[in-house]
Design a protein that fits this description.
Number of strands: 0
Largest sheet: none
Shape: rod-shaped
Distance between the termini: 113 Å
Length: 76
Amino acid sequence: MSDRSKLLANADNAFLRTQTQSSVRNRIISEEESAIQAREAKTARLKAERLAKEALDRELLAAEPPKPKKRRSASA
């Protein structure tokens, strides 16, 4: 092998390594973004469910008749 072909082979290998690293980095970033989006969607869903439950609880509490107050006996 001549010096020129060795240099070309080394340059090709370096380029392939860089390309591989770049594609791996892009895949990792994409997976992280997907996980973040899934977490945000789940958080939003749970918040909506919690707010709906709290609103229902407030409605049920408002619909209950007031409890009669206990009277203290005068013998004390």
